Amino acid sequence: MTRPIAVGVDGTPESLAALEWAAVEAGRRGTGLRVAHLWEPRRVSGAEDRSGTSEEQERWVRQGVEDSVRGLAERHPGLDVSTHVRRGEAAEGLLETADGAGMLVLGSRGRGILLGFLLGSVGRQVIAEADLPVVLIRADVKGGSEAAGEVVVGQQGDPEDSAETLRFAFETAAAAGAPLRAVRAWSLPPVFTYSPGSLQLLDEAGGPVPFERKALAAALAPWRERFPGVRVTEHVEMGSAGEVLLSLSGGARLMVVGRRAHRAAIGSRLGSVADAVIHHAASPVAVVPPAPTA
């Protein structure tokens, strides 16, 4: 991947962690780094207006972004960094700034009572509407050279259903020199839900487990060929996909899941598996959109 990596910053610890993660990843992949900050002018009511003019606020904002990226050149020599400070609504502006990038990296607000990501409305909107992978980083997640463990990717459906998710996972593993664990979870539905054709396929495969292993192997085959240096573990387990993936997140350097977003009556929904992993994973999470339809 030669397209730049985009990252949103706002001066918070989690966004600075996202900035560092993105810088390391850009160095590994040999890409540029596009640092984005979105802001809107504010006024403080009262006898004395301490908020400054919009021009003064913009100057302060730009100074803050420059402060955030100042140390990158020393920590990552040769990294091509560009900054993009613009006014506007955060989600829309981040998506516009990330146009043409290979991924967008965002900071998450940490872990809550349920030990998961606290994802605000901006992050949720960006993930649901983005046409590129979105990576979520917490402030307490180690990144860069300190990161260890496998890249864990969830595979569902037919090979074409998970092609973009597997592509991103293999690219990430190859860039980091990391092993990859491909996970396919399955559940045994009630007998009456099987069609005669499904039963025949299961019989021919020797049962549900061999059938699922064969399906996973078929989905991985073209990516194994394209990335022969990536060591792959095939993981087939009975259970809900969200629960199986979460059980592996503690030792992962990155969890990669596909997005099956669709518009709901109110807001956007991401799909149950992506939603579960986003909110409860113990590692950074990448959410990959499906390939665009013709």
TrEMBL record:
It comes from the Bacteria. Pfam families: Usp. Residues 1-138, 158-289 form the UspA domain. Belongs to the universal stress protein A family. This is Universal stress protein. It comes from Streptomyces chilikensis.
